Amino acid sequence: MLVNPTSAGGAALRAQPVIEDYFHRQSFPADFRHTTSAEDMRQRAAAAASEGYSCVTAFGGDGAFHYVLSGAIGTNVSIACIPAGSGNDIAMGLGIPLDPIDAARLLVHGTPRPVDVLRARFSGNQTRIFIGAGGMGLDAEANQLATGRFCRVPGLLKYVTAVLAALTTSQPLGVTAEIDDATWQGPLLLAAVANSPTYGNGFKMAPAARMNDGWMDLTFVEDLPWTRIFEALLVLLRNGDLRWPQIHRFRARRIRLSADRRSPFHGDGEILGEAPVEIDVLPGAVRVIAPPFGPVALE
To answer: What are the chain's domains?
Structure first.
């Protein structure tokens, strides 16, 4: 079990004794390893299979899950998660309980299930993966602020503050999107690419997204006045049901995004690279201990 000791101001460290006690009472073998950096977490996850582990657990937030996934993908180990971050959107998308003891109970009694992963390819043959949601434009700018200037702001308030701060300088991007066999062009406030329904600690940017259906869900948002953006944030927190003419939704297996100026692209709360970027779905590329997803929607 790879513990991020700095996650959400030490939430994982505070929960660790309770989880250890639960595992002991369940006679469930588990090693707890405190990580020192994102790269340390990735390397430890990559080494788990050769060290004889059948499962590696991310004990932290979305960032911890991202780096455990980056290390473990392509090996024969399963991934699990005990959410303890300021944002736990990946766990929410997978149906993993947010209460640490309930998540530990799932780890003890659950079953590994195939989950899709998104692969992002940038110029220079740089390839990154992510499993939750990401994008470019306003949300990428807000993500940088949330993990930087506002990193100590607690919970949901961090992301709301970051979005409002980003709005003071953000300008629409001229975006060209090649979506499977079609092309879309126009100025956008943001372009979101999602495997999971939420990001930013509960914003339902892609409420219909499922993490095992072989598709990614795309949301393009045209420029909006700030009052309308504030209204949109409230809808995204409630149910994500934005049926406005400035909102465009697609489903795809592949998308290539380019912009008319420098534009960082983020995924799982991490800046992965800069546009242009090509993203495709890797169906069932990793096995995660999670509740049953239920029937997959038909095409």
So the answer is: 2-109 (3.40.50.10330), 119-284 (2.60.200.40)
